[in-house]
Amino acid sequence: MSRSLLDLVGRYADAHTDPLGVAQTPVCGLSMVRAIYPGELQVAINRPLVAMVLQGRKTVTMGSESFELSPGEALLISADVPTVSQITQASQAAPYYALVLEIDLSIINEIADAIVLPPGQSGPISVEPFDPNIEDVAVRLMRLLDRSGAISVLGDGLLKEMHYWVLSGRHSAAIRRLGATNGHAQRISKAIGLIRQHYAQAIRVNELAAAAGMSVSSFHQHFRAATTLSPLQFQKQLRLIEARRQMVAKGTNIADAAYAVGYESVPQFTREYSRLFGVPPGRDLRQSKLDAAG
Q1: Is the pLDDT of residue 256 over 60?
Q2: Lesser CB count within 10 Å: N end or C end of the chain?
C-alpha cells in the first residue's frame, strides 16, 4: 500500500470530515471515511462501491457472512445490499481512514465493451488486496482535490480510468451485470432507484414491478435475490438510516426525523429504530454526541 495515498487521504479527511465521519470530495462518487475511535454497529444499504482501507480495521457483515478489512485491503460491493459494519481499530493517534468510490453505471456501460471478462466469480461482497492500478489512479486523483481547475479538466478521465481497473478485475462479471440494459440486475436497479428517490412515500409493489418490467411474483424473487430484503423491508431500512443521518448530522429531533422519512407514529418509529440499530433513538443520539465530543 502506498504511504502517499494514506497521507493524502488523511490530510483531506482530517480537514473535511462531517459529524458522521464522512468527507465528501468534488469528484462525484468519491468520498473518505475517518474515525478516531472504534465505533458502534452501523447499518447501511450500500450502493455498489469499492472501499479501500488505508489505516485501522473494520468488520462488515452481510447476512451470515462476515469480512475483516485491514490496511491494504479493499471491500467490493457489487449490488445494493444491506450491511452491518463496525470500525474495530481507530484512535486519535492513528485514525481509521478509508477511500470510497461509488460505482457509476453510466461509466461501466461506456467502457464495458472494451474489456474482456476475466475468469472468476464472487458474491455481492468480497475483500481482496488493493489493485495497484486502482491505487495509482487514486493517488493521482487525490493530488487534484484542492485544485478545482485541474479537477474540472482531468477528474472525469481519472474517474473513468479507475472504473476501468475495477471492471478489469475478477469481479467484472458481477459489476457488468449491473449495467446490462435488459438484465435482471439493471431492472431491479431501476426499482431500487425509485425506492431511494421516494423512500418517504407509500410505494406500491406492483408499481415497482411495472418499472422493472416484471410480474409481481418475479419481481419479488429477483429483488430479494439481489438485495436479501423484500421491497418494503428495503424501504423501511432506508427510512430509518436516513432518519439517523438527519438526527446525527443535522441535529433534527426524533419526532421531526420520523415524520420527515414517512412515519406517522413516533412510537412505531422508535420501536423499529431500536430493532434495526439495537438501541432507541434517544440513547443512540446521546452516545453519538459523547463520541463526537470525545
Answers
A1: yes
A2: C
